[in-house]
Amino acid sequence: MTSQTAQYQLATAPIGNLDAYTRLVHQIPVLTADEEYDLATRLQQKGDLEAAQQLVMSHLRFVVRIAKGYSGYGLPVADLIQEGNIGLMKAVKRFDPEKGVRLVSFAVHWVRAEIHEYVIRNWRIVKIATTKAQRKLFFNLRSAKQRLGWLNQEEVAAVAEDLGVTTANVLEMERRLAQPDMAFDLPSDNDDDETQFSPVSYLSAPDNDDPSQQLEQDNYEDYQQKKLVNALASLDERSRDIISQRWLQEDDKATLHTLADQYQVSAERIRQIESSAMLKLKKLMD
Fold first, then answer.
1. Angle at 177 between CA 173 and CA 182, to 5 degrees
2. Counting CB atoms within 10 angstroms of each CB, which of 16, 85, 194, 266 has the fewest?
3. Which own/partner pairs from 5-14 qualify as long-range (CB within 8 Å, at least 24 positions apart)?
4. Euclidean distance between the first and the last CA atom of the chain, given in angstroms as a whole number
């Protein structure tokens, strides 16, 4: 094992002492633009894993800086860094040196996305944000409340308009952010009156809490996803695009008339193509 590989494994392993880890990653030299370009080219063209390691290692200090900005959520900074490192590795894998931007500019979105997902999953037992708009609201509203405290009606309306959500969404998120965390099971030395109000006394286990059943469900969903991808690939380009814009977009699904204008045909023709494609997909999925 080379010293560089050993250093890479140490820097990306589970973090024990945060201060020691921070000192370690700050000892790793920062790449020049030319060095970064050469390494990224080697990775993209030759699949050079050693080049990928160097790209990751040289940007670990950058992940630490971003992760510390999320320390106010009450989650271990070491865990936030680990999640950010996953985002960095994904960014390195997808980085194209020919685009003319530095890796740090490209990777920031991937690092933050992984940290955001971790915060959403772990900040509370109950998910507080499920859609893209709600997640954006969660992070922006929490930042605003640290500066402003409780929002007045004008501020609520301004936040709602800026983030594209309703004022009810803003008020609901603000209420959730204000609620203190509660232990799932209160200590045994509490008296009976207090213990009966702990969540463990009234929250029932879900029907699918068997790990083996959950794993089986996850595998089935992955299998169905692969079948759908293969089925879509069998469609012609126009049919695939129509299905994608009509049914697979998370936001702003296309209308029949929008697609009719795009393909210079009637809305009825788009409906016919869509119907035929859906029937073909159904047969392939079955």
1. 130
2. 16
3. 5/50, 5/53, 7/57, 8/53, 8/56, 8/57, 11/57, 11/60, 12/56, 12/60, 12/85, 14/78, 14/82
4. 49
Q: How many Å apart are CA 77 and CA 132, to the nearest integer?
A: 24
What is the pLDDT averaged over residues 250-256?
80
What's the pTM? Answer: 0.47
Tokens of 100: 């003319």
* Contact criterion met (CB below 8 Å) for 95 and 128: no
pLDDT score, position 16 = 65
Place of tokens 């080049």: 51
Higher-confidence position of 264 and 160: 264
Q: At 115, list the tokens.
A: 């940290």
Q: How many other CB atoms sit within 10 Å of the CB of residue 54? A: 24
Say what the pLDDT of residue 160 is: 77
Question: CA quadruple 266, 271, 274, 279: dihedral positive or negative?
Answer: negative
Residue 62 has pLDDT above 80, yes or no: yes
pLDDT grade for 126, boundaries at 50, 70 and 90:
very low
Is the Cβ–Cβ distance between 64 and 25 less than 8 Å?
Answer: yes
Alpha-carbon span 252 to 106, nearest angstrom: 26
Locus of tokens 């204000």: 178
CA distance 174 to 170: 6
Q: Are 61 and 25 in contact (CB under 8 A)?
A: yes
Give residue 208's identity as a one-letter amino acid code. N
Identify the CA nearest to 186 among candidates 174, 202, 171.
Answer: 202
> CB-based burial of residue 237 (10 Å sphere; 0-12 exposed, 13-18 middle, 19+ buried)?
exposed
pLDDT for the residue numbered 38? 94
State the DSSP code for 180.
P
